[in-house]
Amino acid sequence: FAEEIERAWHALSELGRFVPNPNQPQASKEAARLDSQSAMDWLQSLDAHPLAKKYLIAYIRSEYTAEPERFSLLDLARNAAMYYSKIERPPSMRVMGGNDQIPFALADALPDVRLNSPVTSVRVHPDKVSVTVNQNDSHLTFDSDFAILAIPLTTARLIDFNSLPAAHRKMVDEVTYGEVTKVMIEYRKRFWNDARWNGRLATDAPIVYTWHATSHFDHEHGILTAYTGGDNAAKLSLLTDDERIKLAVNEIEKIFPGSSDFIENTATTAWLNEPYTRGAYMALAPGEVTAHWKTLQEPAGRLFFAGEHATPIQGYMEGAVESGQRAAQEIIGVV
Q1: What region does 284 belong to: left with phi over 0, alpha with psi -120 to 50, or beta?
Q2: Mean pLDDT over residues 170-196, rounded?
Q3: Chain center to CA of 255
Q4: Is residue 101 part of a domain?
Q5: Residue-wise pLDDT tens digits, 282-294
Q6: Contact of 219 with 209, CB cutoff 8 Å
Q7: Are residues 185 and 258 in the same domain?
Q8: How far apart (Å, rounded) are the C-alpha atoms in residues 182 and 191?
C-alpha cells in the first residue's frame, strides 16, 4: 500500500507542471481549463488505489480546509508547483516562544495600537483614506494618506466601503474561505513512540487529520493536534468546546486504546466561530483563481491589501508577513 500512496503523491506533484510560475497561476496556459475543474474532478479521473484516493481526500480536507469538490484544481496545481514538484519540500519552521510572538512584535513596533475597535467603514478618497472604528460604542474616524487592509476578507465583508473598484468589490464578496477546527491534546507520555508512530493520521473519521505538534521539544510530554477541515469542521463548529474535545479524544482512543489515560490538558478552537476570522484561510473554489488572483495583490487607490490571502505563500503566517512587507514597499514606492 505504501507504493500506492507514493504513486498518488507522484500524480499530485505532476500537476505542478501545468503552473510554471506559481506566483501567477492565472497566467498559466492551462489556467482556464484547470480553474473550471475541482480537485475532486481530478481525483475521480486518477488511476489510483481507492484507499490512496481516500488518503488524498483527507489530505486536501486538512491541508486546504475545503472539500475537494469545492477546491479549484488550478489552486491545487499551483500548490503542487510550489511544494510538491521538488525533491525536497521547503522546511517547516516554528516560532520559538509561540506564534503570538508575531503580533506582540508588531505591536511593539507600532506607535498607537487600538484594540477592541472593529472597523465599520473605509472611505477611499483621491488624497486620503478615512477609516471609522467602533470603540466602546463610539465611532471614531482616522484619516491617513494610505491604508493597508490586512484582515480576512470574510471580516472585510462586514465593512462599509464607499466605492471599491468593481474587481475589488467582487473579490471581497466572493472569495471562498475554508472551514477548520483544532483540538490540541497534551499527553503525559508520548504513547505514539511506543507504537513506532510519528503522530500523523489521515482518516475518514470526523477528526480527519492529526500530527505531533511538539516533535521539536525534548520532553516526556507531547501534544497531538487533531485538525479538521471541510464539512466535518463545519459540523464540529456547532459543538461546544467540551463536546469537540471529547469527540477528538474518543476517536484517538479508538485507534490507540488506553491513550486517554495519559491526557494532561486540552484546548480547542473553531475558527468559524471566531468573530475576527469567521473561517480558516482562503480556499479558492473553481473559477476563483482566474477571477481574483491578480486583484488580491493590487491596491484599490490608496487602499492596499495584505494577509495570507494576498501572497503566493498563501495560508501561512510567513506569507502574511511577506504580504505586509510587499504592501509597505508599494506605499513607499508611491510616496
Answers
A1: beta
A2: 95
A3: 28
A4: no
A5: 999 999 999 999 9
A6: no
A7: yes
A8: 20
Q: Look at strands 160-161 and 147-149 and give their pairing.
A: unpaired
Enumerate residues 6+ apart whose C-beta is below 8 A from 105. Answer: none
The reply to whether 103 falls in a domain is no
Q: What are the contacts of 29-36 at 24+ separation with CB within 8 A?
A: 31/74, 31/289, 31/290, 32/290, 34/72, 34/73, 34/74, 34/77, 35/72, 35/73, 35/74, 35/286, 35/287, 35/288, 35/289, 35/290, 36/286, 36/287
**Whether the predicted pLDDT of 87 surpasses 60:** no
- Please report, for the domain that includes residue 314, its CATH number: 3.50.50.60
- pTM given for the model: 0.92
* Weakest mean pLDDT among 44-53, 209-218, 317-326: 209-218
Q: In this structure, is residue 320 part of a structural domain?
A: yes
Q: Are residues 324 and 240 in the same domain?
A: no
What total of structural domains would you count in the chain? 3
Q: What is the identity of the amino acid at 260? A: S
